Amino acid sequence: MSGRFLIEGPEDARLTILLAHGAGAPMDSASMTAAAKALSAKGFHVARFEFGYMAGRRISGDRKPPPRAETLNPEYKAAIAELNAKGPLVIGGKSMGGRVASMIADELYTEGRIAGLLCLGYPFHPPGKPEQLRTQHLKGLRTPTLICQGTRDEFGTRGEVSGYELSKAIEILWLEDGDHDLKPRKTISGFSAADHLATMAETVLAWTARLQP
Asked: One Pfam family from the UniProt entry (predicted)?
């Protein structure tokens, strides 16, 4: 751990990935840790951080709902500034963390401060509320983006997302039978969670190789 960040992977990596957590689980949750380890194993410098409300929960134990995602935009920008990554930077995160990153991505990409956006389980809509789409800003997104999504993610299944109007800058990796944590049911899919994380990391490696620094 380095200050407010959890760090994995080589310091001299060609590219750094900064990840924020989802709405309900901290940066050291099992799914975040597994994703960070899979990415660092591919040679990425991976940093995780927490928004203030989640860090506060560790002290108070208070489980009140998270703030609206857009109100966290300044906190994400502050984390980028504090991290001060050397070389190309990809921002993103798990669920809400990726959504917050997606809201600030184009501003930072235009300024040449980031190379891309990585979302692990994008929350296209709240569970059970497919009409409440969170895709308006994704229609005109200019930042090169990779979304890694399970085909049965309750925040946006493959069948649902195929009908959305999304920017051509967005690529989606579909992981068969994966849930919101990208975990499949092995007896149904034939894949394990480790299989899907390995595929995710391999795909991120190939995708970042195409990004402009």
From this structure: Abhydrolase_11
SS3 58: helix
Q: Which residues of the chain have pLDDT under 50?
A: 1-2
Q: Options 3.30.420.40, 3.40.50.2000, 3.40.50.1820, 3.10.450.50; which CATH number does 6-209 get?
A: 3.40.50.1820
Backbone angles phi, psi at 141, to 5 degrees: -60, 135
Region for 200 from its dihedrals, namely left if φ exceeds 0, alpha if ψ lies in -120 to 50, beta otherwise: alpha
Assessment of whether the complete model's pTM goes beyond 0.90: yes
Element (H, E) at 46: strand 45-49
Evaluate whether 182 touches 148 at the Cβ level (below 8 Å). Answer: yes
